[in-house]
Design a protein that fits this description.
The complex is a heterodimer. Chain A is built from no helices and 11 strands. Chain A is mainly beta. In chain A, strands 2, 4, 5, 9, 10 and 11 form a 6-stranded mixed beta sheet that branches. In chain A, strands 1-3-8-7-6 form a 5-stranded antiparallel beta sheet, with no helix packed on it. By secondary structure, chain B is mostly beta strands. Chain B has a single domain (5-108), classed as Immunoglobulin-like. Helix content of chain B is 0%, strand content 48%. Chain B has no helices and 11 strands. In chain B, β5 (44-50) and β6 (53-56) form a beta hairpin. Classes of the chains: A mainly beta, B mainly beta. Chains A and B meet through β5, β9 and β10 of A and β4, β5 and β10 of B.
Chain lengths: 111, 115
């Protein structure tokens, strides 16, 4: 079993829809929870990160962490065609240097 | 300012050849990471440098993989006697600080194809 599980999709939604992306994990030591966006043939870029549990909002993006369920989510409101990309969740413990990534979910927002 | 750059962007190698992949991190960044991203997968950690010191190489899949950062800036990932399973995108990332979580800035990757 992988430490981080993510549904690869693909996910296709109409412009303006609310998108929900999720990851589950097995390692209770994870404390940093991140969401990256990766466009085709580009490197991942950090969208948001959360330390420990709770919610964080940044514009149209909201990240949620539920450590009791080992479940994290990213919500995108008013989705735009420019949001079409692969979204990767990633996690890290307090100690060590390794970041553990999910497989990524491919999202297409249709105009 | 300039981001993380990697070269070459694409590399085709015959099985058994040695390859060298280069990463130029953002100037002044202390931490440097190498990842391997297979098709349809997320990045998998390979190794970590703090300045010139390789502090973690637990993700290197075999002793055919070797990384260095001799002057604490540019890094090279070398793969000896390449195999078909080495085909992947190799990503480099750098961050300003070490020892605590910090934003990683990724390069565009080198796509390695082993025939």
């Amino acid at each position: 079993q992988k430490e981080v599980e993510q549904d690869p999709g693909p996910l296709s939604v109409p412009e303006g829809a609310i998108v929900s992306l999720n990851c589950t994990y097995s390692n209770s030591a994870f404390q940093y929870f991140m969401w990256y966006r990766q466009y085709s043939r580009k490197g991942p870029e950090l969208l948001m990160y959360t330390y420990s549990s709770g919610n964080k909002e940044d514009g149209r993006f909201t990240a949620q962490v539920d450590k009791s369920s080992k479940y994290i989510s990213l919500f995108i409101r008013d989705s735009q065609p420019s949001d079409s990309a692969t979204y990767l969740c990633a996690m890290k413990q307090n100690t060590g240097n390794q970041f553990y990534f999910g497989t990524g979910t491919s999202l297409t927002v249709i105009p | 300012g300039a981001g993380v750059s990697q070269s070459p962007r694409y590399k085709v190698a015959k099985r058994g050849q040695d390859v060298a992949l280069r990463c130029d991190p953002i100037s002044g960044h202390v931490s440097l990471f190498w990842y391997q991203q297979a098709l349809g997968q997320g990045p998998e950690f390979l190794t970590y440098f703090q300045n010139e010191a390789q502090l973690d190489k637990s993700g290197l899949p075999s002793d055919r993989f070797f990384a260095e950062r001799p002057e604490g800036s540019v890094s090279t990932l070398k793969i000896q006697r390449t195999q078909q399973e080495d085909s992947a995108v190799y990503l480099c990332a750098s961050s300003l600080r070490s020892g605590v979580w910090d934003t990683q800035y990724f390069g565009p990757g080198t796509r390695l194809t082993v025939l």
